[in-house]
Amino acid sequence: MNRPVAVVGLVALLTLTVCTDRSSPIAPSRHPGNTNTSAAKGGTAATGLRLCPVTRPNGATPPGEVKSGLNHGNGMLWRVLWPRGVVVAAGDQVLPDGSVEMKFPWWRGVKGRLSIEGHRLDGLAPPLRAVISDYGLTGFQASGIIFPTPGGWEVTGRVRAAASLTFVTLVVAR
Question: What tens digit of pLDDT does each residue of 96-149 get?
């Protein structure tokens, strides 16, 4: 194994350990529907491994879908979270400019078009960009999210003013 791959692997392992440590204190959320988070303290890009209020799945499952330990929702919007709250990107998911592009499925229980916004929590970065396919006004909705940089990201999906769902994920590029 060459040295750069080993270093990236070690950073990813440390990130998973730090960000999913169940002994971490609970962080207050700015969003009332986002109460299932754990966090360690931190705040700059250099301490990004310590700032990671990753959302834990609440088990809420969209109507008609299979229950999963990764389901998360609020009765109006749902999605499946990445294991341990960490998006690990590799290959063509890491774009030439270093940004990360991943697919994110959503389910809508309210009528309307989904919009997605988000910002980085542990450092400076432009807002994320979302590519949303047209799947009608309710039910399943495919989307792609482009994170300009790896790090801790807060993401909010919204259908008009009727519904929103916020989650926090850690994005790692290898």
Answer: 999 999 999 999 999 999 999 999 999 999 999 999 999 999 999 999 999 999
Say how many C-beta atoms besides its own lie within 10 A of residue 110's C-beta: 14
Evaluate whether 78 touches 61 at the Cβ level (below 8 Å): yes
Question: How many CB atoms sit inside 10 A of residue 172's CB?
Answer: 19
How many angstroms separate the CA atoms of 75 and 29, rounded?
A: 19
In whole angstroms, what is the distance from residue 58 CA to residue 172 CA? 23
Give the closest residue to 105 by CA, choosing from 123, 76, 78, 74. 78
Q: What is the pTM of this model?
A: 0.73
Residues 6+ apart with CB under 8 A from 13: none
Residues 6+ apart with CB under 8 A from 59: 67, 69, 71, 72
